[in-house]
Amino acid sequence: MSLVLVAYAGRHGGTRQIAEVIAAELGGTGLTVDVRDAADVAGVEDYAAVVVGSALYYGRWRPEAVRLLERNARALAERPVWLFHSGPCGPDAAGRQVSLPPNVALLAARIDAERTATFGGRLDPATVRGIIPRLFAAGRRAGDFRDWDRIKAWARDVGRRVRTRVAL
């Protein structure tokens, strides 16, 4: 049995990379961790704690992450859960805290999730599709705005909290 699940949803790999760094930091606190695409998570019953993250697109979570929360709401309510999202891009990305989308906020309240973290995103002009994303990617929002030190610190804090709340 793995102790902690880190599930992620995104399109271009940026959120997956964040999830992998979170998992590595959790592992560094002595926890056993699985990292999985949210679309591949059938259930959370085998986990003592869960971290779920999604890329933000136009203020919305990816549907795979929302479905994971919906399908597993009862089981998630019985264990500690942390949420994060990534997406703000541009010079002010590091300091921006973005509220959960309303549908995810309702699910977070239902499962009694811990405080949500917002991490800067990555906007690579080579990977975006569509006219509007390309317009964003051509301007000041293009680049990698993920603050790895902040992400690692948040993950270590989650690890400490898991270790105090869960019988290992």
Automatic annotation (TrEMBL):
<dbReference type="Pfam" id="PF12724">
    <property type="entry name" value="Flavodoxin_5"/>
</dbReference>
<dbReference type="InterPro" id="IPR029039">
    <property type="entry name" value="Flavoprotein-like_sf"/>
</dbReference>
<dbReference type="GO" id="GO:0070819">
    <property type="term" value="F:menaquinone-dependent protoporphyrinogen oxidase activity"/>
</dbReference>
<dbReference type="InterPro" id="IPR026816">
    <property type="entry name" value="Flavodoxin_dom"/>
</dbReference>
<feature type="domain" description="Flavodoxin-like">
    <location>
        <begin position="4"/>
        <end position="159"/>
    </location>
</feature>
<dbReference type="GO" id="GO:0010181">
    <property type="term" value="F:FMN binding"/>
</dbReference>
<dbReference type="GO" id="GO:0006783">
    <property type="term" value="P:heme biosynthetic process"/>
</dbReference>
<protein>
    <submittedName>
        <fullName>Flavodoxin</fullName>
    </submittedName>
</protein>
<dbReference type="InterPro" id="IPR008254">
    <property type="entry name" value="Flavodoxin/NO_synth"/>
</dbReference>
<dbReference type="InterPro" id="IPR052200">
    <property type="entry name" value="Protoporphyrinogen_IX_DH"/>
</dbReference>
